[in-house]
Design brief:
single chain, Arc Repressor Mutant, subunit A, Tetracycline Repressor, domain 2, 2 domains, 10 helices, elongated, transcription regulation, HTH_TetR, HTH-type_TetR-like_transc_reg, TetR/AcrR family transcriptional regulator
Length: 202
């Protein structure tokens, strides 16, 4: 009987832990965007999330670990997006969708990025492994697009990511993204058609 009860409770406990972790990440992101990293404490973050400081420290050993985890979480999402459709014919559309999602992420989180001291082209050590995974997957997409003649031969995926990563203005996000995409798409490709696919991405 005890064993059966434990097996029923375990998924619930895991679910609660995931929910608490998500609440802490959201709370930290909001507070850091508002006041920066220096002027908030672990208690401030826990109070905003509606959990105890003990719960915070069960998930994150330090405030910096929490800040790093916010960035890691975003690059993990980027890595999933960069899987693409695995079709060379669709690679350029997949690239545009990844860059569109990335531009939304960085423009929405502009205040957090600035307050946390994150800089374009600089990757903190904690983020490096998941960033490397994204780079590898995105490079595969780019190679597929280059092989199909959909992107310019001299174009480099690292340049596209760095340029999109510098977008901070929500109002200018779409035209800035369009300018970047138009710069690397091959001349025979309909840029407007490529950009229209980004409007359907979640």
């Amino acid at each position: 009987m005890v064993t059966a009860t434990s097996s029923r409770e375990s998924p619930m406990l895991r679910s609660d832990a995931k929910q608490n972790r998500a609440l802490l990440l959201d709370a930290a992101c909001e507070l850091i965007a508002q006041v920066g990293t220096d002027d908030i404490s672990a208690r401030d973050i826990a109070d905003r999330a509606g959990v105890s400081t003990a719960t915070l420290y069960r998930h994150f050993p330090s405030k910096q670990a929490l800040v790093d985890c916010i960035s890691v979480d975003r690059w993990e999402r980027m890595s999933e997006w960069a899987r693409g459709s695995q079709s060379p014919r669709s690679a350029v559309f997949d690239i545009a969708r990844v860059l569109d999602r990335f531009s939304r992420l960085v423009s929405d989180d502009a205040q957090f990025i600035q307050a946390a001291g994150l800089k374009v082209g600089a990757t903190p050590a904690a983020i490096a492994p998941v960033r490397e995974l994204f780079d590898a997957r995105f490079s595969e997409l780019w190679s597929a697009a280059r092989a199909s003649g959909s992107v310019r031969r001299w174009s480099d995926p690292r340049d596209a990511v760095e340029l999109v990563g510098s977008i901070r203005n929500r109002e200018r996000r779409v035209p800035m993204l369009a300018t970047i995409v138009a710069g690397f798409v091959a001349p025979q490709i309909d840029v407007e058609r490529v950009l229209r696919t980004t409007h359907r991405s979640p």
